[in-house]
Amino acid sequence: MYRYRTGIAWRDLPEVFGPWQTAWTWHHRMASNGTWDRALDKLTAAADAAGLIDWSLSVDSTIARAHQHATNTTRLTGGWIELQESAGRAA
Predict the structure, then answer these.
(1) pLDDT band at residue 60, thresholds of 50, 70 and 90?
(2) Of 12, 20, 28, 56, which one's alpha carbon is 20 to 30 angstroms from that of 48?
(3) Is 57 helix (H, G, I), strand (E, B) or coil?
(4) Contacts of 47 (CB under 8 A, 6+ apart)
(5) 7, 16, 36, 65, 85 from 25: Cα distances, Å
């Protein structure tokens, strides 16, 4: 929980939690067998029963477009290779 609250890497866990490898293994096992999901379900149900959760929902359909150079794909821009390929298709 500390790691998610602070946003740190596993290797940066304070020494009070023990070796980071042990903390990661423990977390991974609990995530794999569904322990974290069951805990969240119980906490959510208890908070909802106590009236502590407001189920109001807001949906935003804003689209954030990325600049064409923000992608990881290669874009041919009319160089020599592209010209040679298109000449073969034109024939």
Answers:
(1) confident
(2) 28
(3) coil
(4) 53
(5) 18, 16, 14, 38, 53
